[in-house]
Amino acid sequence: MLEMARRNVGSPLCYLLRHRYDNFAALRAIAAQGMPPLTILHGEHDSFIPHQMGQALAAAVPGSHFELVPDADHGDVAPLATDKLRALLAEP
Questions:
Q1: pTM, whole model, 2 decimals?
Q2: Alpha carbon 55 to chain centroid distance?
Q3: Of 27, 45, 51, 47, which Cα lies nearest the Cα of 37?
Q4: Residue 22 burial (CB count, 10 A)
Q5: SS3 label, residue 16
Q6: What is the domain partition of the chain in residue ranges?
Q7: Which terminal Cβ of the chain has fewer Cβ within 10 Å, N or C?
Q8: Is 17 helix (H, G, I), strand (E, B) or coil?
Q9: Residue 19: pLDDT above 80?
Q10: What is the 3-state secondary structure (H, E, C) of 32-77?
Q11: Integer Cα distance of 58 and 31 in angstroms
Q12: Are 32 and 61 in contact (CB under 8 A)?
């Protein structure tokens, strides 16, 4: 979360961020408990979070998969990837 804020508002303003979510730490903790394969869907045209950040998150978890959702912005991933999400949820 801090890195996203740094990219969007710069430093030192990013340090005013109240929430310090650490997706890398959270995914590592879940992976240590034996989570199923991870798929990260990211909007191809995300205007808020660069897709490289999603790729880095996927790369941090062995066995994970990263996929760009064509024509999707930050809030468009779910509506534009409905079929993909349904297929992922149907997997055992």
A1: 0.75
A2: 8
A3: 27
A4: 12
A5: helix
A6: 2-90
A7: C
A8: coil
A9: no
A10: HCCCCCCEEEEECCCCCCCHHHHHHHHHCCCCCEEEEECCCCCCCH
A11: 12
A12: no
Give the model's pLDDT for residue 54: 92
Nearest to 37 by CA among 9, 79, 67: 67
35-69 pLDDT, tens digit per residue, is 777 899 999 999 888 899 899 999 988 888 999 99
Residue 33 identity (one-letter amino acid): Q
Look-up of token digits 């979360």: 1
C-alpha 90/C-alpha 56 separation (Å) is 26
Q: Which two tokens stand for residue 14?
A: 């990013």
Lowest mean pLDDT among 10-19, 35-44, 74-83: 10-19
